[in-house]
Amino acid sequence: MRGAAVVVTGAGGGIGAALARGFAASGARVAVNDLDAERALAVAREIDGVAVPGDASAVVPAARRALGGAIDVFCANAGIAPTGGPEADEDVWAAAWDVNVMAHVRAARDLVPEWLERGRGRFVATVSAAGLLTMLGSAPYSVSKHAALAFAEWMAATYRHRGVSVHAVCPQGVRTDMLRDAGPAGQALLAADAIGPEEVAEAVLAGIAEERFLILPHPRVAEYATARVTDPNRWLGGMNKMQRIIEERTRGTADAV
């Protein structure tokens, strides 16, 4: 990573900030992107990087200018996790799709032609274990994260022989604002085994060094994913049991209030 030009979206806090710090500590030149300009600037100052605030979907041209040339590594980390199911408003579904999927597509659209010409480039997608499994309580998040993983897989299958490396990072619970705001379902599923953002960043750097497509900061996710594929009825039964537990807890909280 020494001297590499790296862009991290959603890097004003949480996993993104930890990634920015991890890449900077490895010797990379880091562009810190976030919708919140003050938070992006604070992280950039801390790591001696550059702040490129704004929409993650359109950050590539500005990041190129800020870094003084080509981008070597792009971390598509920005994401949102609205709650709800099919009853959620159309704009909620659209926002999840736009941030969690189309921001990756738009970045790749800007980056891949140059990477193919150079014969090298690296795309790191923060997907979430929800992309391999599911996320109770948030259909927009779960569905869009499945799509984000599918896009990363397509990128890897299509461009690997031409020098483009792709990684899909699929953590479970991480101690961030997103977990805090995840509601009863998120807390029940994720809080007990939550890890720090720094542990995710360490796993990402290790995964890059080993050229692994699937990066699992929670190794047990591989077991869950295997169970989901090999015995879907049993796996869905277990998830539905968890859903019933969440509903009981939610009712108990409402009754107490």
Shape annotation: globular
**Structure annotation, total helices:** 10
Please report which band the strand proportion falls in: under 5%, 5-15%, 15-25%, 25-35%, 35-45% or over 45%: 5-15%
Structural class, from helix and strand content? alpha/beta
* Mean pLDDT across residues: 91
Looking at the chains present, what oligomeric state does this protein adopt? single chain
Largest sheet: 7 strands, parallel
CATH class: Alpha Beta
Return residue spans where pLDDT drops below 50 for at least 5 consecutive residues.
none
DSSP E strands, number: 7
Going by CATH, the architecture would be 3-Layer(aba) Sandwich
Rg (CA only):
18 Å
Query: What is the CATH topology?
Result: Rossmann fold
Question: CATH-wise, what's the superfamily?
Answer: NAD(P)-binding Rossmann-like Domain
Q: Kindly report the spatial arrangement of strands forming the biggest sheet.
A: 3-2-1-4-5-6-7
Q: SSE string, helix = H, strand = E?
A: EHEHEHEHEHEHHHEHH
What's the helical proportion of residues?
A: 55-70%
Terminus-to-terminus distance: 52 Å
Describe, in plain words, how this protein is organized in 3D:
One of its GO terms (molecular function) is oxidoreductase activity. Belongs to the short-chain dehydrogenases/reductases (SDR) family. This is SDR family NAD(P)-dependent oxidoreductase. Keywords: Oxidoreductase. Pfam families: adh_short. The chain is an alpha/beta fold. It has a single domain (5-228), classed as NAD(P)-binding Rossmann-like Domain (Rossmann fold), CATH 3.40.50.720. The chain is 55% helix and 11% strand. It has helices at 14-25, 37-47, 60-67, 90-118, 139-159, 177-180, 183-190, 197-209, 220-230, 232-256; strands at residues 5-8, 29-32, 50-51, 73-76, 121-126, 164-169, 214-215. The protein has a 7-stranded parallel beta sheet, sandwiched between helices. Helix 4 (90-118) links the parallel strand 4 (73-76) and strand 5 (121-126). The longest helix is centred in the middle third of the chain and has 29 residues, at 90-118. It is globular and about 55 Å long. The mean pLDDT is 91.
